Amino acid sequence: MKVKKAIIPVAGLGTRFLPATKAQPKEMMPIVDKPAVQYIVEEAVEAGIDHILFVTGRNKKSIEDHFDRSVELEQHLEAKNKEAQLNEIIEISSMATIQYVRQKEPLGLGHALLCAEQFVGDGPFAVLLGDDIMDSSIPGIQQLIEVFERTNQSVVGVQEVPYDNVSKYGVIQPRQSSQNPCVIEDLIEKPSRDQAPSNLAIMGRYVLKPTIFRFLRDLKKGAGDEYQLTDALKESLEYECINASILEGERYDVGHKLGYIQATLELGLKRSDLNEDLFALLRNFVENEKKGVM
Predict the structure, then answer these.
(1) Which candidate, 212, 187, 206, 182, places its Cα nearest to that of 198?
(2) The pTM is what?
(3) Which of 47, 163, 243, 275 matches a 20 to 30 Å C-alpha distance to 148?
(4) To the nearest whole percent, how much of the chain has pLDDT over 70?
(5) CA 18 to each of CA 257, 260, 271: distance values in angstroms, whole numbers, following the listed order
(6) Does 294 score more than 70 pLDDT?
(7) Number of domains in the chain
(8) Sign of the C-alpha dihedral, residues 40, 46, 47, 49?
(9) What whole-number distance in Å separates Cα of residue 130 and Cα of residue 184?
(10) Can you tell me the distance from the alpha carbon of 224 to that of 47, in angstroms, rounded to the nearest whole number?
């Protein structure tokens, strides 16, 4: 079966970005001139996904508004003959069929997916975490979809991280580390450096079979006192094969301040309307720093 549905969990409180996220979702914070979550939706759409479910929480209404029609704004842009901006705004609301379900408590990624069970039905589905932006020639989730269509087995996206950072991620133990994709032997959520079976960390992209829900329903709380998807995947390994595929491309963790700043700068430098001036600005900053002006 083709992967045509995606889940994007966005129910987190965004406490790392307080006070900026006191009244707006972290997913709506702009990277250059688009909210972070729009990059995620565009990745899914480019991969052929046409039905998207946001798992939301309180204070997330602006996400719904962003992907809805804005008749007053469209009329204003049309009256001002701003055709390019008008077309861009209309396209945002027509990229895919988008639905919403509320996660009443932030109980972890496993619980967020369980909220989406009815949406998924009996077919495979993609999961894209809102904190991770991928910049790649082939959309990150498409890379996993291609692996799924070859193997008919669930697949998670991974990248190598420094061993000092493994405690931030779900980490896999590959059956054969030289293979890509590789079969997963084991998974551990947020292990210490000594516990980590490898430095291959899950990067917020999954293509899963609906059988995962039978394990999510009986899941017990794990790391962070939350229901972890990694724990459900670990339990399912006794019954089915799950692959890991190394994601090609640059991944930005916009859920952390430094990753957010990095994404803004690097994606800005790739914009033809900004790269020259932005590069000059950065070069001037570095030169002044060397001179001790800053």
Answers:
(1) 187
(2) 0.92
(3) 163
(4) 99
(5) 11, 14, 28
(6) no
(7) 1
(8) positive
(9) 24
(10) 32
Distances from the Cα of 83 to the Cαs of 74, 237, 267, 274, in angstroms? 10, 52, 24, 21
Q: Which helix (H) or strand (E) holds 208?
A: strand 200-208
The secondary element (H helix, E strand) that includes residue 64 is: helix 61-66
Is 103 a member of any domain? yes
- Total Cβ atoms within 10 A of residue 29: 17
Q: Report the C-alpha gap between 59 and 237 in whole angstroms.
A: 36
Q: Is 260 inside any structural domain?
A: no
Residue 64's domain is classified under what CATH number? 3.90.550.10
- Identify each DSSP E strand in 88-153 by its residue range: 97-102, 125-128, 132-135
The whole-number pLDDT of residue 157 equals: 95
Residue 163 CA neighbour count, 13 Å, CB half: 6
The model's pLDDT over 247-263, given as tens digits with 9 standing for 90+, comes to 999 999 998 899 999 99
Distances (CA, A) of 57 to 13, 41, 84, 103, 256: 8, 18, 33, 5, 20
